Amino acid sequence: MRKHITVSAPGKLMLLGEHAVVYNHPCLVTAVGQRMRAKITIFDKPVFELHAPDVKVIGYKKHLNDIGIGDIPKGAKFVEIAIKNFYEQYPFKGGVKVETSSEFSALFGFGSSSASTVCIVKALSMLYNIRLDNKKLFDLAYKTVLDIQGKGSGFDVAAALYGGTLYFVTAGKVIEPLDVKSLPLIIGYSGIKADTVILMNQVSELSKDYPEIVKDLYVQIDRLVELGKTAIEKKDWQSAGELMNINQGYLESLGVSTGKLSAMIYEAREAGAYGAKLSGAGGGDCIIALSSKETKQKIITGIEKAGGKGIDVETNVEGVRIEL
Ligand code: MEV
Description:
Blueprint: E1 4-16, E2 26-43, E3 47-52, E4 57-63, H1 77-89, E5 95-102, H2 112-127, H3 134-149, H4 155-162, E6 165-169, E7 174-177, E8 185-189, H5 196-209, H6 211-233, H7 237-253, H8 259-270, E9 275-279, E10 286-290, H9 296-305, E11 309-312, E12 321-322
Parallel strand pairs: 3-5
Antiparallel strand pairs: 1-2, 1-12, 2-5, 2-6, 3-4, 6-7, 8-10, 8-11, 9-10
């Protein structure tokens, strides 16, 4: 039996449908070229060790019986609970050492927590020779996200597992790969770290105060996701961009955009983007802009004029894979 394995999983970017997707609506998500790598080693001694310098967890160690118990550092939570959930379902109980490194900053909102969770479940299933298809791996990893966050759609877990560009419905009710080759996206990083759970709670409070209005907003977002799916499959960037702009309007209505995100979005649009919107929970993290080859550099300059950092990313990339 193999004693160690190295796997990698991609980060993600939400294209259309954030927040509504938490409440039984669809979204579109693409996997990005920057990846999370994890080396997982199993041994007899009943300890769990984690070395994740990107999230400032160095030399973290505890007895396997204490896994999931007591104070867990923020950067260790997803890996530790993923192992706990795996061992509850498949009672092997060997010691585990995890070493992670990421090609993207945990600050970008590219989904480093879900990518590392996916790496763990994939690696353990390989090391223990348990055949689990992507849906089974999804359910295990999604349980980990819910155990920690209390809520969330699981779209980030699906992107890390399946890769490509997906049409996704809450909790993996539908996970449908879209037939696209590439998506001409530019990322604008705001430099501000968003807290997804706080933003989800904020939106949930708003919907308690104005249930009918927020429900209608979700229905409109649902419609534009359906239209966006067709536009992206047809490479109709003009329509896809317009739908991104409309989606941004709804996200403004839900109260999750910020002055800085909006400034970057307007600069990107003025520089000739087909469309631009925030991507993810809002409150910070990134915006995305759909660009042509000709407008790419102008958009990056525009984003930087608004105080953001332009990042050129590969999209639609492969999901979780074995590296070594
Ligand atoms: C966060 O990146 C996107 C949200 O829709 C949350 C989720 O889908 O889990 C706000």
